Amino acid sequence: MCGIIAAASNRNVGKLLVQGLHKMEYRGYDSAGIALHQKDQIAHLRTLGKVKLLEEKMIQEKPKSKLGIAHTRWATHGEPSEENAHPHKSNERVYIVHNGIIENYLDLKDFLKKKNYSFLSQTDSELIAHMLDYFLNQGNSMLDSMYLTKDRLDGAYAIAAIDLEDDQNIIVARNKSPLLIGIGIEELLAASDPLALGQLTNEFIFLEDGDVAELSSDSYSIYDINKKKVEREISKIDISSQATSKGEYKHFMEKEIYEQPEAILNTIDGRVGGDDILENIFGLGSSEMFERVKRIQIVACGTSLHAGRVAANWFSSISELPTQIDYASEYRYRNPHVDEDSLFVTISQSGETADTLAALRYAKEKDYLSSLCICNVPTSSLARESDYSIFTNAGPEIGVASTKAFTTQLAALMLLALSIAKGRKKNPKLRTRVVTALRSLPDIIEETLKLKETIIELAPEVASKDNALFLGRGIFYPIAKEGALKLKEISYIHAEAYPAGELKHGPLALIDENMPVIALAPESEIAEKLISNLEEVKARGGTLYVFSDPTISMDVKSGKLIKMPKCDFLLTPIIYTIPLQILSYEVALLRGTDIDQPRNLAKSVTVE
Ligand code: AGP
């Protein structure tokens, strides 16, 4: 959840480390800190709050250094405070930054207290600094001390450490938490996210679990879990600054909403051809594997889970297969039964979500036919550990609230439904219809985005309330859930979603003039039933905002009926998502919340 960065260079590194923190701030932003080696001492600056405050402190104090580590935090153990901010130190000698969770921290703290180490923070991370100091004092090198420390740590970690007695080297270590090395010009870098280093290099080495590496300004050495020196592949990735800047937009979320036509185009580009889906788009051998699939198990979290819920419907109607779907955090604990020839599918924007990764690792021990991931980050742990994968090609998503990642996940899941249907020789005509519809999707999204002005008009009504109810039926229920999640996460308005038919079984009691009801009413076989449900709301004084098919007419009294562009029914969930994203954004804007970095959240949830 946190972001770590380290640099050993021939130039001053303070500024580049802080710039890197800014790029990773979406991962966590309750406090930030830096430790800079200055030969005879280590400058140690920490601030509560956003990276900007650390930057201001740096501008005042102007510490100079060619070797340093820095951190932006999302609190797990201990409240957000300056004492709990990283880097943590031991005896003014060892300074560390850590991303992850040390599960056996209480035992290790007890051990260190008995060795006379005292703790200044409530974090699990501080013990890493003390443990390294303890082993260094026994005459071990920093590399050996890191291995000895690692041997005692249970849990997930990406660590970077520096030692006052060595102004040339940084030691980094990875276990179940992302960490990569960046090879710069006359400098070596490390970070938990390539975005942090995108301005500095396009050459990256993704460390593996158990790896430890030593970095100086002109060289690096990597050692594996058994302390054997290893070579790891160098990947060239161009992370352009354009992709990570807001451009003309006020917020990344806004930019990402309006990027969706292009993002969707990139998801389908090169994957459909003629009137059908192309072969092996999920990796070599995937088409052959799809012939055997008899059942699908989906596992994901948050917005990605909502994408899975929509897709479950497509797997049924297009691929003619049953689907089981689970919250990643719950899946392992329900003792799942695995049917023969079941395909295990994970969905994740980041590919680093700890619960989803843990579920994949658990599933790999079970009797699944194969594992497959839908992911936006090709270099992520999930992508590397799955048998098959498809990348959503949405481009970096910086806003914590997922927008283009969600709609591109839906597009990729539709490609999966079509590929499995093709493998199973099902529904050729329907496949052609959907492929044609997919091609026109970017244009329809473009048209949908023009609803912005209409939505801006109704945003003040929603912004003035404390609650909201989202309604949808069938394949639109998960879209209603996604709308509610978006609204609550960025505007802090309490929002719930229900299948409209469930209203009279309880939630109808909540309806009054203070409960705006946002409903999705596409043309469908149950459109009339939905309209009756909405009449029940109207009769009880609820204000209705209905996004509907142009053919549907209803009197919404004080609310608003907003006509949506026409689209193939199977793809309408993607289209109906767009106005809900814009509504959340405009409401949050009116309420003055921190849209890109909402309180208490983080983009990449790398703790279970
Ligand atoms: C989306 O707006 C949320 N921030 C969150 O629910 C997110 O979708 C979830 O944490 C899963 O993340 P992932 O897609 O990176 O696995």
What is the CATH class name of the largest domain? Alpha Beta
Q: Give the beta-strand count.
A: 27
Order of strands, widest sheet: 3-2-4-1-10-9-11-15
**Total domain units:** 3
Main β-sheet description: 8 strands, antiparallel
List the SSEs and their pairings.
Layout: E1 3-9, H1 14-24, E2 31-37, E3 42-48, H2 51-61, E4 67-73, E5 88-90, E6 94-102, H3 105-114, H4 126-137, H5 142-152, E7 155-163, E8 166-175, E9 180-184, E10 187-191, E11 203-206, E12 212-215, E13 220-223, E14 229-230, E15 235-236, H6 252-258, H7 260-268, E16 272-273, E17 276-277, H8 286-290, E18 295-300, H9 302-317, E19 323-327, H10 328-331, E20 342-348, H11 354-364, E21 370-375, H12 381-385, E22 388-391, H13 404-423, H14 428-449, H15 452-463, E23 467-472, H16 477-491, E24 494-499, E25 516-521, H17 527-539, E26 543-548, E27 560-563, H18 572-591
Parallel strand pairs: 18-19, 18-20, 20-21, 21-22, 23-24, 23-25, 25-26, 26-27
Antiparallel strand pairs: 1-4, 1-10, 2-3, 2-4, 5-6, 6-7, 7-8, 8-12, 9-10, 9-11, 11-15, 12-13, 13-14, 16-17
Bound molecules: 2-deoxy-2-amino glucitol-6-phosphate.
2-deoxy-2-amino glucitol-6-phosphate binds near residues 301, 302, 304 and 402.
